[in-house]
Amino acid sequence: MTRPKLAVWKFASCDGCQLTLLDCEDELLALAEAVEISQFLEATSEIKDGPYDISLVEGSITTDHDLHRIREVRAQSEVLIAIGACATAGGIQALRNFADVDGYTNTVYAHPDYIETLEHSHAIADHVQVDMELRGCPVSKSQLIELITATLAARKPHIPNVSQCVECKRAETACVMVSQGIPCMGPVTQAGCGNLCPKIGRGCYGCFGPVEHANTAALSAEFARLGLSETQTRDKYRYFNAAAPAFANAGDRA
């Protein structure tokens, strides 16, 4: 029986989401028996030609070369899944979207004419059809395995569509914003990190991007009540998922 072909692709990113896949260890061994890993340079130099049944894409589109390559990947892939904040929202590098890229390039580099880059850092879905997205910086290991296995089984993946606050309540973690007055992005952030920051007394950083129907206006008002300036509130939204529409719009309004 022919196994489905899996490919993993890297664009502008830190490799963290690919490392999450490698960190699956025992699950990865079982996955390797279920699929033929045809392209995954983080793990092996062996490359097998497409077409591919599933492509996992990490990273944002930041150059003309990226733009050409993602179209080639899309053409070779039956199912294309964007994984991580860079692939789904442009990543931390999308902070360039709010800055003077030419000005920074001319200041930082001795030969700025050598630098070829797009003015903005784009999500994969801005340029090609994406079949599924998995949020996070990096993605959750359990969610990644769930997404891959669900795709192989042709079923809907069980990925939570609730805010980080729900995760805190399920873990019986006291709200840091209510109990300690610590600004927290939890109310507008999708759950998935495992309650990483609030459980140690830190506010959520929004690593998993905006939850559906995020009420950013209410959260911004609460930040103001806690004493944050408009600039500080803006910067809360401009982090790992700065270019995600809900966060980008909230940052502009701050």
Helices, strands, pairings?
Elements: E1 5-10, H1 16-22, H2 26-34, E2 36-39, E3 52-58, H3 64-76, E4 77-83, H4 85-89, H5 101-108, E5 132-134, H6 141-152, H7 164-170, H8 176-180, H9 216-225, H10 230-237, H11 245-253
Parallel strand pairs: 1-2, 1-3, 3-4, 4-5
Helix pairs in contact: 10-11
Give your account of this protein's structure.
The chain has 254 residues and is an alpha/beta fold. It has 2 domains: 5-152, Rossmann fold (3-Layer(aba) Sandwich), CATH 3.40.50; 164-253, no CATH class. It is 37% helix and 11% strand. The chain has 11 helices and 5 strands, in the order E-H-H-E-E-H-E-H-H-E-H-H-H-H-H-H. It has helices spanning 16-22, 26-34, 64-76, 85-89, 101-108, 141-152, 164-170, 176-180, 216-225, 230-237, 245-253; strands at 5-10, 36-39, 52-58, 77-83, 132-134. The chain has a 5-stranded parallel beta sheet with strand order 2-1-3-4-5. Helix 10 packs antiparallel against helix 11. The protein is globular. The model has no long low-confidence stretch (mean pLDDT 94).
